[in-house]
Structures are given as C-alpha cells and as structure tokens.
Amino acid sequence: MTHPQQPVHEVLESRPFEVGDGTEVRRLIPQRRLRTVGAWCFADHYGPDDVSLSEGMKVPPHPHTGLQTVSWLLEGDIVHRDSLGSQQRVGPRELSLMTSGDGISHAEESPADRPPVLHGVQLWVALPESGRHGAPAYEHFTDLPEVEHGVLCATVVLGSHQGISSPGSTYTPLVGLEVLVGGDGVLPLEPSWEHVAFVLDGTAVIDGTETEVGELVQLGLGRDELSLDGDGARVMVLGGEPLEEQLVLWWNFVCRSNDEVVQARADWESSSGRFGTVAGYPGPALSAPPLGPVRLMPRS
Ligand code: MN
C-alpha cells in the first residue's frame, strides 16, 4: 500500500509534533502507510499561530544531508540562515529552497518585527543518488508561476505542472502546487506520477470527499485529473515519479543505510566540517538525539 499502482482515495491523519523550541506541527508525511510521494519524503503543516506574544518559530542550527528543504508560508515571515552564509527573510508565497547535497546546516526563526500570524509548511524532497553527494545550495524566489484552470488557480511552488516550471532546482520529476479553490473545478495531473493532497486553509472537497486541515488524501498513481471544490480554500498537491531508491530517514538525514546515518550523526556531533556552521543565530546548535539499539533498515 506504500506505493499504490492505481488511483486510490485513502484519508490519513496527521500526527502532532513539536519542532525547534515550541512550534506545534501537523506531520502529514511520512506515515506508516505512506513513506514517499515521488521524491517528497516529509511534510509538516503549522499554524495559523499567533506569534505576537510568543517567541514564534525558533529552530536552532541543525544539519541536513540527502535532501532539499522547502519552506512555504501562507502568512508571516521567517528568517533563514545557513552554513553557506545565506541570511534571507522569507515572506508569504515565497519559495525558500535549500539543497543539502552531502551536507549543510541551517536555522529558521521568527524575526523580531514579525507579523502576528505564522502559517506555513515545511517539506523535504529526497535527493536521488545522482544528486545527494553534491554541493549545497540555497535559492529564494519571490515570483512563482501560476496556472489557471477555470475556478482553480495553481501556483507552481516546485517542479512542473502542465509544462510550467517553478524556478527552483529539482533533481527528479515532481510537482508541488498550492491551489486556490474558487468553486467546483478540475486540476489536471500527470498520470505516470503518484499524488497526495491536503488542505492548507479552509475546507475543501478533494476527489469528492470533504477534507479538513490535518488530513492527507493519498490519491495513488494513474490519475489524469483531480476534482476540487471549495470557497476560497487552499489545497496543496504533491506528486512525482515514484522514487525507486530505498531511503533511511533518521532525524534530519536522508540516507541509504544505517552506516550512513551513524557517519552523518558522528560528523555533526564532532563538528567535522561536513555540515559547516551557521552564523548569527542567537543560541546554541541542536545536538543529534541518541541512536536507538536497532539498526535502521531501508523502507521503500
Ligand atoms: Mn531543517
């Protein structure tokens, strides 16, 4: 069931987690029944949260390998800092895309002069073998392409949709769309890809079923369209060519084996230089959690 070979409609519930110093998130991917969608291997949805009185988001410096991180905000601002020296304030509807290659570290926090509400998603894309040993990179784009399908307006956050591509770098065929649903419409999909959809804001009818924030709709493979209905709801659609590689996800690492995880953890804990250092974050970096007693196994 991890990779259905045909269209399905299965609703999976998100689970609550806390990331950094106190940001509550709804973890939509991975699930026991859904590890990857194309190369998408992680999805957290947070907010809308009132960050006017709290400290807002504070995620201290931490490492990544084998993935791209995608930050996409509906409301609010965050500041991204990384070990390449990037320091970027990111606002709503701007793509913050970090490619780890073999190793990078970064921090994300709410700026002091932040708007009162924070609402967004953090997504990870697994890098294929051909891309995961390369150099790290950071990209930021403020103007992303939109494709209209009647009452639906799809913003191409990452990848390609109907021949229209996001400017963000990708390594496998995939798409990430934010769809503004202004009525009863039909979104074309690439039938050779697998897809999921979830509600970012409001309530939408996804593939004929009323769907709430916090639910992930697994759509499977082989669909050439998706029906969406709503009154100003925002729906995220993630899809891609099924990833043939077996991943081992642990903490902030996307690896292929237990040994690679052990090495990445040791490289971070020993400040080996693989992940660099993040300047300017007001606080210490995160330590890796202890590894469990059981060797990590790849999950397809
Ligand atoms: Mn991160």
Question: What would the keywords be for this entry?
Answer:
300 residues; mainly beta; Jelly Rolls; 8-stranded antiparallel beta sheet; 7-stranded antiparallel beta sheet; 1 helix; globular; binds manganese (II) ion
The arrangement of helices and strands along the chain is EEEEEEEEEEEEEEEEEEEEEEEEEH
The CATH class is: Mainly Beta
Task: Summarize the biggest pleated sheet.
Answer: 8 strands, antiparallel
| Number of β-strand runs | 25
Strand composition percent: over 45%
Low-confidence stretches: none
What structural class do helix, strand and pairing data support?
mainly beta
Estimate the mean pLDDT confidence: 96
Q: Hetero groups bound?
A: manganese (II) ion
Helix content: under 10%
CATH architecture verdict:
Sandwich
Enter the CATH topology name. Answer: Jelly Rolls
Q: Total domains, how many?
A: 1
Distance between the termini: 11 Å
By CATH, the superfamily comes out as: Jelly Rolls
Shape: globular
For the CA atoms, what is the radius of gyration?
A: 18 Å
Number of helices: 1
